[in-house]
């Protein structure tokens, strides 16, 4: 099975992007141990607007991504995340088709 990648983007409430990053760190501490198949996550701050963000989460396969998404603790964490965002978080889920590194 190929890796599952979830891309996400949005705009934090004014001045709340650092809190959003801290919330991602909270996931690492509290949710990661129960998240089978998690590989890595990144969050990027916009160069033209410090409240805009984009990120990606990589899983070893789609089944583990779905398994994690279905955990009640993950749902509660996500609700806390959305409270930091102005509007909706955009999502694109896909299967890794290619990867190149240095």
Explain what you see.
With 102 residues, the protein is an alpha+beta fold. A hairpin with a 6-residue loop joins strand 2 (38-45) and strand 3. The longest helix has 14 residues, at 17-30. It contains three helices and four strands. The protein has a single domain (4-51, 70-95), classed as Alpha-Beta Plaits (2-Layer Sandwich). The chain starts with a strand and ends in a 7-residue tail after the last strand.
Features:
alpha+beta, single chain, 102 residues, 29% strand, 3 helices, Alpha-Beta Plaits
Question: How much of the sequence is in beta strands?
Answer: 25-35%
Largest sheet, strands/sense/barrel:
4 strands, antiparallel
In the CATH scheme, the class would be Alpha Beta
Average residue pLDDT: 97
Low-confidence stretches: none
Tally the helices. Answer: 3
Condensed summary:
With 102 residues, this protein is an alpha+beta fold. It contains 3 helices and 4 strands, in the order βαββααβ. It has one domain: Alpha-Beta Plaits.
């Amino acid at each position: 099975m190929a890796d599952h990648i979830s891309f996400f983007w949005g705009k934090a409430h004014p001045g709340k992007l650092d809190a959003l990053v801290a919330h991602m760190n909270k996931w690492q501490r509290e949710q990661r141990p129960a998240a089978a198949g998690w590989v890595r996550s990144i969050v990027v701050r916009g160069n033209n607007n410090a409240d805009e963000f984009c990120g990606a989460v990589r899983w070893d396969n789609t089944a583990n991504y779905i398994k994690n998404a279905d955990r009640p603790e993950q749902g509660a964490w996500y609700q806390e995340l959305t409270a930091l965002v102005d509007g909706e978080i955009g999502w694109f889920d896909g299967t890794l088709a290619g990867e190149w590194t240095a």
